[in-house]
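Supplementary Methods, section 5.1.

A reviewer requested that the exact input to the structure prediction be made available. We therefore reproduce it here, unchanged from the version used in the analyses.
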Amino acid sequence: MTFFPFVRSVTPVDPPINGVTVEKLLESNERSWGETNLKSTEATFDEKTDLKGPVSLAAVATKPQGENKKSRLVVYGNSAFASNGAYGLQGNGNLFLNTVSWLAQDENFISIRPKSPDDRRITMTEAQGRFVNYVLVLLLPVGIIGAGIRVWVRRRK
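The structure derived from this sequence is encoded cell-by-cell as follows.
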C-alpha cells in the first residue's frame, strides 16, 4: 500500500506508439474517482464529469533497444510520494527505490526493505524524571540490598 497526496490520473495513450509497450503500474480502488472540479472545496463524485475508479496513478513504458536492453520510463501522477514528508509513509520509500532500481536495470536490488526502528523517546515532566531517578537510583538498590540482608539473616538462624 502506498500514499499519494493530491495525485493526478495517468492514462496510457491507446494505441501506444509503435514499438513501445505501455502498462498501468498503479491503480486506485473501484470506489475512488478522479475529481475534475478542482475549484470546489468539497470532493463529491459527479457521474457526468468525474473519472470513475479505478483510476490509473502510474504507468510504465518500455521499448526494446537491441539485444537484452530496453529503454524504460515510469510516469507517476504525483512526485510528492517520494518527498521527505511522504517517503516514510506506507510503502512509498520501497516503491521509489524499487522504481529507480528497475529503471537502472538492476532488478537484483528490488526488494522490500526492513523497517528502521522508530525513535521511541519517553517524554516526561521534570517531576516525573526526578521520581524515576529516585526509584532507580535509590529505592531499587536499597530494596535489593534489604532483601539480601533479610535472606542472610534468616539463613543464619
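The chain has two domains: 21-109, 121-157. These observations are discussed further in the main text.
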